[in-house]
Amino acid sequence: MRAKIDSMQTILKSVAEGNASLEKNLFTFDTLDYNVFSNQQWIRLHESHSQDIIVNWPDGHHTNGLQKHIEDLSAMFVYAPNTSIKQHPIRFGSSTGEWSCVTGVMEGTFTKPMPIGGGKFIQPTGKTFKLPMCTVGHWSNGVMIEESLFWDNQTYMNQLGLGK
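Request: output the structure for the sequence above.
Response:
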C-alpha cells in the first residue's frame, strides 16, 4: 500500500508542477501578444522565445532563429502599424506545461504602402482587418522553442481589400 501511495504522490506532484508551468507559460503568452507584439517591443521577445525558435507561418513557410522571427513580425507592421492582439478567448495546454494553445483576434488597418519586392508597393486601401488567429507553442525552460501560427490568409487579404 505504501508503494501505491508514494506513486500517487509522485503523480500528483508532477501534475501540480505541470499546471504551474502551464499557467506561467500562458501568462507569458498574454504578455507577448498584448504588450510585446501589439506595441512592437521586439527587444523583449526573448522573454517568451528561445534564440533558436522555429516558427511555422500560416502561408506554409518556416523560419529559424529569433532575429528572423522579429524581421517577419516587423514586416506586418509596415503596412498596418496599428496591428494588435488584445484578447485570448481560448487558452489551454498540456498537463506538463510543455505545450500551449492560444486563440486571439488580430486586428489593424492597412494605412501604409505594402512592400511586395523589387521596389514595388501596394498602396494602402484604408481597410480594417479583424480575424481569428491561433498560436500553438512548444515550451522548454520557460520559453517557446517552436511556434505554429494559424490564421486564414484569404480572409486576411479580403479584409485588406486585396482578395479576389
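The first strand starts at residue 49 and ends at 56.
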